[in-house]
Every structure is written in C-alpha cells, then in structure tokens.
Amino acid sequence: MMTLTTTGARLSIFAAGLLFGLGLTVSGMSNPAKVIGFLDIAGAWDPTLLLVMGGGIAVTLPAFHWILKRPQPLFAEKFYLPSVKNVDRKLLLGAVLFGLGWAIAGFCPGPALAALVTLNPSVLLFVAAMAGGMLLHRLLLE
Amino acid sequence: MENFTPITGLIGGLLIGAAATLTLWANGRIAGISGILSGVLFPTRGETLWRVLFIGGLIAGAGLYLLVRGTLPLEIQAAPIPTVVAGLLVGFGTRLGSGCTSGHGICGIARLSRRSFTATLTFIVTAVITVFVTRHLLGGVL
Description:
The structure holds 2 protein chains of 2 kinds. Chain A is mainly α. Chain A contains 6 helices and no strands.
C-alpha cells in the first residue's frame, strides 16, 4: 500500500515539474529566438532572460536558506546536495561547451524539453542530440 | 529592446523559483534539468521515479500552456546540422560541468555555491561571445 509520504512525494515532484514547465513557457524561454535575443548584446538586445533568472533566484535565495535549516525535507529522509565544492577544469570546460551549444541553438535542457510539446522536428532533433551528448559523456568519462 | 517582455519574464521566473523551492522543500532534491534528464536516460535504482515524474510534470506544464494559450511561440534559426552539434555540446557539456541554467543558475546560486557562480558566469559569457562571433563577425553562418 502506498503511504501518505510516497503519495505526497510523487504529487509534489510532479507539481514542481508542472510549475517549472509553466514558468519556462510563460517566460518565453522555450522560444530559442528569445534566448538568443538576450545573448545578442550587439543586436536588438532583449533583457527578458535576466528577469527570468532574477525572478527565480529572488524566490530560491531566501527559500533555500530557510529550507536548508530544517532537519529534513517533507517527504524524504535527507537533502540530496552536491558534495563537490572546488572549481575544477571539468566544471569550466563543461560550462564552456554548454555555452557554445546554448548559443548555437538557443536551447538549454529545460526549455528544449518544454518545447517538445510543439512536436517541432528541430526540437526533437535537438533533444535526441542532447541525449546523445549525455550518452557520449557516460561512455567516455564515467 | 522591442522584444522585451518584463512582466511575463518575471512571472515565469517566479514560477521557476517556486518549482525549485518545492523540489527541495518537499523532496530534498535539486531541480537541475540536465541532471534529472540524465538520471532518466541512465536510471539508478530508487532515483528514477521522481525524475520521471518531474520531467513528465515539466512537459505537462508546457502542454497546459499550449492548451490554454492555443500556441507556444517557437522560432528556431539553426539549421539541422548546427542543431545536432548544439544538442551534443549541451548534453556533453552539462554532464561534464555538472549542471545547466537551472541547476547552477537558479539552484546553485541560491545555495551560494562557488562552483555554480563560476559555471553560470562561464556559460553565459561563452554564449554571448559565441552569438557575437556567429552573428556579427561571421554574418550569421549558423
């Protein structure tokens, strides 16, 4: 039998995904032209992305501070946080490669998944290639 | 700045922040889309269902937007080969760099992680330079 905790956990994580998908589409970030409009500072610059990140961080910054002082999450036994603390070459090289790809297509992972609902072939192609890139990393480096 | 949409940008950002907050508060997890997607593609025992539910919710959220608004703006300028290259770079780069715009940009910065500040700055600067080079120096080859 499913306990109240597992029901709560499943409902809340689905709701979180739903809010995330709404946020990405409402903000316009699921449209690559909008993202490239932000990155193109020498063109017709569109600062919207700055407000999206700012709005996000305006919530997470105080909320995370409060949440992480609690003994544990509502529906899990502990917080699952990254353990690596130091800036290394992998982090920097990874961020550079990601930045390159982000600029070429105008897609980062979340918006690309949200845009899947359009069934646009370019989105499917991007998401398939992104999965391929993750597979490549797994095969070569893990 | 004729494309600037501050209100929907801010609302979308707040929704994304709320989603990341719910993920940590209820389930103790970081709402990093690249890590979650990778965990769906390459499942580990006990860590897969929440990720599937989150991604399902994200796509459902975008679907809800499409349903309510009747359309989801999508302008993709990259041709198929650059789209594939970009997808590979985003997939590989986000794994190597342990995160993307959500995990580093929204959640990591809120945890005051030095790695996330560095990664976010690195991928934004790289993407701005890439767009400048491809659009203004090379005349939009991609």
